[in-house]
Amino acid sequence: MATRLLGFIASLVVAVALFEMTAADTHYVGDEMGWAVPPGGPIAYSTWAKTKNFEINDTIVFNWNGTHDVAEVSEADYENCTKTNPIGSIQQSSPANFTLDSNRSRYFICTVSSHCELGQKVTINIGEWSSASSLTVGALSVLVSAVVISLLSSQI
Q1: Burial of 63 (0-12, 13-18, 19+ CB in 10 A)
Q2: Cα separation, 57 vs 88, whole angstroms
Q3: DSSP one-letter string for 70-83
Q4: Degrees, nearest 5: CA angle 126-132-133
């Protein structure tokens, strides 16, 4: 009886851990600043993005007031603030949501006036984990392995 209870608890722990690893997050671009011409230039959005762990199936949300839009562009168009080649359609109403559906970098700009040149652009790097996140996943892997070994040895 105790072995079955332990097995049930271990299975529950594994299920919760797996759910946490696969749960999609929603990221609001710029947090409180939102999607606007940043007062500090492009460093504002690159700094914001570096504090996030973007994963496949996460959603990024662009919220703005005033005259702005958001377009996904290629890396070259991002670097040059080229507004004439968007990937898909330019999103002209806020909020604009994008689902991160593959493990690749994505590039977004505002196409209004000189907003991009003034720093209203962001790169989203998907799957780049900080060392703290890697440590958490590593620790979780060890825990799951220990539970599985424990369950298998109790069945023998």
Answers
A1: middle
A2: 18
A3: EEEE-HHHHHHT--
A4: 40
The CA distance from 95 to 63, in Å, is 5
Alpha-carbon distance of 7 to 12, in angstroms, equals 9
Q: Is the peptide bond before 38 cis (omega within 30 degrees of 0)?
A: no
Residue type, 28: Y
- Quickly list H helices, the chain: 2-22, 43-50, 75-80, 131-155
Q: Is 89 helix (H, G, I), strand (E, B) or coil?
A: strand
Give per-residue pLDDT as tens, 80-126: 999 999 999 999 999 999 999 999 999 999 999 999 999 999 999 99
CA-CA distance, 54 to 27, in Å (whole number)? Answer: 8
Task: Answer whether 121's CB lies under 8 Å from 110's CB.
Answer: yes
pTM across the whole model: 0.71
